[in-house]
Design goal:
With 244 residues, the protein is mainly α. Helix content is 66%, strand content 0%. It has helices spanning 3-15, 18-27, 39-50, 57-61, 69-81, 86-96, 103-112, 120-131, 136-149, 156-163, 171-187, 189-197, 203-215, 221-233. The longest helix is centred in the last third of the chain and has 17 residues, at 171-187.
């Protein structure tokens, strides 16, 4: 382990919040390396670290150290902070993606990649192989990138075409797809429902999508009731869904 890794790990351990660790660990099954650092605190440390001239950021991003989930998250946050040329931006993302092994690392990483807005068409093309991946977290990465940056007038038709053609047996990939579709429903209800109802989207993903729309505060009551009735009419059932 390099000296800089030791320094960073010592700092991360000092930022740990035991009560938050116990809470967070319950939300991320099968992960046993959670320190429990609140996201705003970790983002603040990422900015602090990024501003230190003695830190070789490019070397830091290439480190493979999975002692703590937050070390990986920190690398994701700093990847997002880097002001990179296009080729380097995509190279850094490619370096990070194999480190994604849970939804928290995936989703916070996607939210950090603000430079996507600078390279929208290029990033859209970059995402396509990940959206076809059989790896659950590569697929979720692609989907969360779509819902974060591409549910817009310019991209909604292409996004819906992609999302309604996806399938996965993995729970977290399914939830990513459902989350993305629920955001599409919130912003483009009629267009999204037409795409969903004319697709071969699995009952599991349809059910999860409707649940997330119903849980949202934004859709009108009549839209939520419409989706409840749609699920009943389609005779779609799921033990994981409960409508309130």
């Amino acid at each position: 382990m390099t000296e800089i890794e030791k320094q960073i790990i010592t700092k991360l351990e000092a930022l740990s919040d035991e009560s938050y660790r116990d809470f967070n660990a319950k939300l991320i099954p099968n992960i046993n390396n959670v320190l429990g650092i609140r996201i705003p605190v970790l983002r603040h440390y990422a900015r602090e670290l990024y501003g230190q001239e003695e830190i070789d950021i490019n070397a830091f991003l290439k480190i493979n150290n999975d002692k703590y989930m937050e070390f990986t998250m920190l690398q994701g946050f700093i990847t997002g902070l880097k002001k990179s040329a296009k080729a380097e931006f995509f190279a850094d993302i490619k370096t990070f993606i194999p480190k994604i092994n849970n939804w928290a690392v995936c989703d916070t990483f996607c939210a950090s990649l603000k430079q996507t807005k600078k390279y929208l068409p290029e990033t859209f093309e970059f995402l396509q192989p990940y959206l076809q991946s059989q790896n659950a977290y590569e697929l979720r990465f692609g989907v969360v990138m779509l819902l974060t940056y591409y549910i817009t007038d310019d991209y909604i038709d292409r996004v819906l075409e992609i999302l309604t053609a996806l399938s996965s047996s993995d729970y977290y990939a399914q939830m990513g797809i459902a989350w993305a579709l629920s955001i599409c429903y919130v912003n483009y209800f009629d267009k999204t429902h037409t795409a969903v109802s004319n697709s071969d989207l699995s009952p599991e993903i349809q059910h999860k999508t409707v649940r997330k729309v119903i849980e949202s505060l934004r859709p009108a009551t009549e839209q939520k009731n419409f989706l409840r009735n749609y699920i009943k009419q389609q005779n779609i059932s799921s033990r994981q869904t409960c409508f309130h």
